[in-house]
């Protein structure tokens, strides 16, 4: 019973603290993660958490801060892909982490497109390159999962 109450209290604190913002590690810390699959997962969590700050920065009129956050998202997505490639595992034989990354990049692209609708027309175009980059990594992941190993 005591453990249940502790979990309920922790959940309430997480909700009050802002949910996704509270639990995300900095990108430099994620780059130092020795486990490559975990590094990929953490990088994508970081990217998802940075979408809202991009929109908030644009709405506050701080386009430089928004561009910085967009660069962090792009770096995190590339870090995720690079970490999975560095494992040396073939995605078709070991699809677990590749499939997770594919699903998360697809969701990230959709989240960015949804966030894009909240912005002014000129600001929307600035997100186009980021969305294209995320979709490119998503396509690479799909290709890796679906293709046979070359001999």
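^ Assign residues to that structure.
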């Amino acid at each position: 019973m005591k453990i249940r109450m502790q979990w309920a209290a922790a959940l309430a604190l997480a909700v009050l603290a802002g949910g996704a913002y509270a639990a995300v590690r900095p990108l430099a810390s994620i780059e130092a993660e020795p486990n490559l699959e975990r590094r990929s997962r953490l990088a994508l969590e970081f990217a998802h958490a940075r979408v809202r700050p991009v929109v908030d920065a644009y709405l506050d009129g701080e386009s430089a801060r928004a561009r910085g956050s967009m660069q962090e998202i792009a770096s995190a997505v590339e870090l995720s892909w690079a970490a999975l490639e560095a494992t040396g595992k073939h995605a078709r034989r070991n699809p677990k982490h590749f499939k997770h990354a594919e699903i998360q990049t697809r969701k990230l692209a959709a989240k960015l497109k949804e966030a894009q609708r909240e912005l002014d027309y000129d600001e929307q175009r600035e997100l186009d390159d980021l969305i294209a980059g995320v979709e490119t990594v998503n396509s690479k992941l799909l290709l890796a999962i679906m293709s046979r190993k070359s001999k």
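The chain has eight helices and no strands.
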